[in-house]
Amino acid sequence: MAAGGTIDALGQFTLHPALGRIGAAVHFSQSNLFMVIAGVLVLLLLWLGMRPRALVPGRLQAAAELSYETVMSMCVETIGPEGRRFFPFIFTLFFFILLGNLLGVWPYFFTFTSHIAVTLAMAVFVVVMVTVVALRLHGLHFFSYFMPKGVPIALAPLLIPIEILSYLSRIISLSVRLFANMMAGHAMLEVFGAFVVMLGGAGLLGIVPAGVSLAVNVALIGFEILVAALQAYVFAILTCIYLHDAVHLH
């Protein structure tokens, strides 16, 4: 809530220097800090999970093994046998986004995937990498991707720009979907959380509406956790689909 009792749902996305003067000097914001935290948590999950190497895995080892198998299955089933080569990248991408989405659900934490600059950077990296993979595997034959077989040559001046635009629109599709979902979800949490405070301070008449707002907020938190996992999966599976197109040119 902002001063004067108004609701500032977007104020939570404002970047501030982290780590005091050092962060301010190097422009290290809370977004950068939570990116580091997300990376460390993924590494800890794998290191601590696989450290016992027990035949009967504990909870942490089972979680690490399940994470590995799930992402590996996604790569192989979507890309093909070649998907094993891209497993480290897809695994890192999926869990980096997943942790980035989930961290922001906790109070006083920050969701760095709610910033378009972050999601756009990841989307550009994915599309550039997919293009490099396609060029390395197929050379100049890659450009036949923009002119499907069986299409009359006369339609090339119209079809090729459309195909190129569709190819480049992957950047917008990947970045905006993730950014918009995370920003909208957290903005709604802020609004209903503010309702609880405002209505709760309005006396007896505000108790019931405040209780309803609190119940809605609890439900939204559960929904936000589901969306966080779903958006990480969507980003990863779309990346796999784009890699499949790059490897097989169809």
Oligomer: single chain
**Uncertain residue segments:** none
Number of strands: 0
Number of helices: 7
- Helix/strand/pairing class, anyone? mainly alpha
- Global geometry: globular
Order of helices and strands: HHHHHHH
End-to-end C-alpha gap: 50 Å
β-strand amount? under 5%
Largest sheet: none
Whole-number total of structural domains: 1
Mean pLDDT: 84
Describe it for me?
The chain is an all-alpha fold. It has one domain (3-248). It has 7 helices and no strands. It has helices spanning 20-26, 30-50, 59-79, 87-103, 116-138, 156-200, 207-248. Helix 2 packs across helix 4 (87-103), helix 3 packs across helix 7 and helix 5 runs antiparallel to helix 6 (156-200). The chain is globular and about 75 Å long. The N and C termini lie far apart (50 Å). The model has no long low-confidence stretch (mean pLDDT 84).
Main features:
70% helix, 250 residues, globular, mainly alpha, 7 helices
What's this entry about, in short?
The chain is an all-alpha fold. The protein has helices at 20-26, 30-50, 59-79, 87-103, 116-138, 156-200, 207-248.
